[in-house]
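Figure S7 source data.
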Amino acid sequence: MDSQYGASEIKVLEGLEAVKRRPGMYIGTTDVSGLHHLVWEVVDNSIDEAMAGFCKNINVEILEDGSLSVEDDGRGIPVETHEKTKKSALETVMTILHAGGKFGDGGYKVSGGLHGVGISVVNALSSTIKAEVFRDGYHWVQDYKDSKAVADVKKVGKSDKRGTKITFVPDPKVFETVVFDFDTIVSRLRQQSYLTKGVTISITDYRSGKRFRFYFEGGIKSYVSYLNRKKETIGEVVYIEKDAPEGLIEVALQYTQTFQEHIFTFANNIHTPEGGMHLTGFRSALTRTINNYARKAALLKEKEENLTSDDVREGLTTVISVKLGNPQFEGQTKSKLGNPEMRTAVESVFSEYFMQYMDEHPNEARAMVAKCSLAARARLAARAARDTVIRKGALEGMTLPGKLADCSSRDSSNTELFIVEGDSAGGSAKQGRNREFQAILPLRGKILNVEQARMDKILANNEIKALIIALGVGIGETFDASKLRYDRIVIMTDADVDGAHIRTLLLTMFYRYFQSLIETGHVYIAQPPLYRLSFGKKSEYVYSDEGKENTLKTFETPDKVNIQRYKGLGEMNPEQLWETTMDPDRRTMFQVTIEDAQQADFVFDTLMGSEVLPRKKFIQTHAKRVRNLDI
Ligand code: 0RA
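Tokens for the predicted 0RA complex:
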């Protein structure tokens, strides 16, 4: 078939060649996250078919031969000859870059958005693909090798099934790894099925025998229930849906007896962590509607001030999902919805329906307003408490905490603050450190869980107060990153469950109150060794169980090896702590990313793997190093 290249044929090859030459331009990276982009691309096509109302089941299989297949029961990709290309429509979408959209027929598309690079990109980066179509009573098949069709699409038998099945083997010459990660795929599929209600998505991993099936009748309503599954909730999940002229709008929300807000927004099933117009519209409608209702129902007295936006967000879990014809993604990571019409649409749809809901459910409405009023009273109390604290100068950095062993250098571009668990480890660290540039702050016992406390309580906690003063940056409205007194903030905890817990609490606090310090790369996690192996005069520190096994293999007679397991930092003497964990020339440290901090907060667990391209790149630079970290 390739005997004579026509002009269009050359174009085809050029298009896919460009993808092969610079895969990063199309899928971000060629590491494990890029590999999974191929999966998202194929799955998204089936999700589009489901969103258009033609498909009810999507079935993903990871096979032992290294291939992955996605089958749906949609209309099937057309196989008849396409007028312009003179090839089947199937071959056209598989081999022509960006052809996919032209064969779509309107509707809201995932693949019209950010991830949508087209299935031809999957073909360009696969060593083989089998495309199967079940349509009009027949089973059609076409195979591709090195991105070229082996033969025209042909009927291989009769079938009364309908749908499309794509089986691909990623090209090992392109990717650093071609091993699919079950958990990554599962969490993405779970999220997609929350966002596409009524669709059943199954996954089977034949390498391990593990399988999952997701079906959420309630869509994002089920999503909110899932996010709140461990919280004390107030009322039921409120769910609002409208097919407005601007697009499909869905909002699900539920108040809880916690103090943090959790909100996840999506446009065409794509996570928009930077928010955008749908979020703005929702926020103003929520504050206005709750105030209007509270006044109307005399729950807010005439002389009382309105509830603020912060008051109505405390303890609220929300998922917003909009689907629109022409989504505009903006912002630094292209993850912010820019369509201005969505602001007014969400604002008016949400306020109308939410007011109606409250009118019809006075008990629930009263409970929600009560929660918001409590938040308002707490806000006023917290402000008073903070004003006192600030007036006293306690947070101004005037009085550094007594237990802080500060460094002598005042050049904050090269200093380090070690936050150490417990007094005994703190003692070792103080003796072992280089006091020129390393400061030690021992924390006694568990710090407060900021998820379960408001600002006034947080500021009353001595451990946290000491930390904030040591950092020098203030908190809340007085936060000023330029006042940071150290370049690196290193969390150093024991390698046990308690240590992991303290690390989680600290990460949550940094995530919630000092996010910009994480974003600018100032927060680290120290890596103390797990074992010391000694054999004769040789001795070596190892940092993982795997490392222990590997090192043992390098000793010729392992039975004489003395294995010391470090249960806590306190078991190391100052010199050992210095040479294994604190000495910049010998230590390993993990730089904490926003994603790590998010993981520390369980509620983000369904969102792993939903990040958009530019962020992906950021993740891959750190993900490997943090991989076996049990945060
Ligand atoms: C455009 C038109 C039609 C089907 C599809 C796209 C389609 C594409 C994919 C990709 C994976 N699964 C899919 N299912 C359907 C058919 C239009 C018609 O039959 O009238």
